[in-house]
Write a structure and sequence with these properties.
By secondary structure, the chain is an alpha+beta fold. The protein is built from 4 helices and 12 strands. The chain has a single domain, classed as Cupredoxins -  blue copper proteins (Immunoglobulin-like, Sandwich), CATH 2.60.40.
Length: 199
C-alpha cells in the first residue's frame, strides 16, 4: 500500500473512532440489492469466475469489467487482518449500507478481525437481524473465502465496496466497468485513440 493510501486509511480510522463515540445508529440490516445493480445469479449461468482478494484496505483487482446482462461468479478471499466486506451496489446503496455496518460495530458484531456470529442473530426490534446474508454481499473474517454469483443489469454506476466503518473512506472500493462486448466498436475506438496519440 502506498504512503498516501496509508495516511488516508489512518485518517479514516480516526474519523470512525469519533463516529463510534458519537453513537450513530443505522436503520437496520435488511438492505436489498436494488434493481440498478442487478440481481442474484445462478451459478450454472455464470460465464466466468473472478477471484477478488481483499486486503487492508484495498481489493485486487481494483476494478472489474462486465457486460450488461452478464452473470459472474466472484470468489472472494479475505487476505487481510481485519473483517472486510465485498458488496456490489450503487454509490447511494453503499452510503446507506455504511449506516447499517456502523450499527454492527456498535453492537459488537464486528470486532476488528473477528465476527461475533451470535450477535449477528440478534433481532434489532424491527424484524431484522444483523445476519448480513444479502445475495450481493459477503462479510469475511481474515482467511475466509465465499462466493457471490451476480447477474449485472444494464449499464449503471456500480461499485464493489467494503462498508465496514472507515474502509470505504480509506479507498476500499472499485468500479464495475461495463463493456458492450462489440469488438468492432472497441477496435474503432482503439484506432481513433491511436490516431489522436500520433498527432
Amino acid at each position: 500500500m502506498s504512503v498516501s493510501k496509508f495516511v488516508v486509511a489512518a485518517l479514516a480510522m480516526s474519523v470512525s473512532a469519533v463516529a463510534l463515540g458519537a453513537g450513530a445508529h443505522g436503520d437496520g440490516h435488511g438492505h436489498g440489492q436494488g434493481a440498478k445493480s442487478g440481481e442474484p445469479g445462478k451459478a450454472s449461468d455464470a460465464g466466468r469466475s473472478i477471484t477478488v482478494q481483499m486486503y487492508d484496505n484495498y481489493y485486487e483487482p481494483e476494478s472489474i469489467e462486465v457486460k450488461p446482462g452478464e452473470t459472474v461468479r466472484f470468489v472472494v478471499e479475505n487476505k487481510g487482518k481485519l473483517v472486510h466486506e465485498f458488496n456490489i451496489g450503487t454509490p447511494a446503496m453503499h452510503e446507506s449500507h455504511q449506516k447499517e455496518m456502523m450499527m454492527m460495530v456498535e453492537h459488537g458484531v464486528i470486532q476488528g478481525g473477528k465476527l461475533n456470529r451470535d450477535m449477528m442473530e440478534m433481532d434489532m426490534g424491527n424484524g431484522m437481524s444483523m445476519k448480513h446474508d444479502d445475495p450481493n454481499s459477503v462479510l469475511l473474517e481474515p482467511g475466509e473465502s465465499k462466493e457471490v454469483v451476480w447477474k449485472f443489469s444494464e449499464k449503471s454506476s456500480i461499485e464493489f465496496a467494503c462498508n465496514v466503518p472507515g474502509h470505504y473512506q480509506a479507498g476500499m472500493y472499485g468500479e464495475v466497468n461495463f463493456n458492450s462486448g462489440d469488438s468492432r466498436v472497441r477496435s474503432l475506438a482503439d484506432a481513433s485513440k491511436s490516431l489522436n496519440t500520433a498527432k
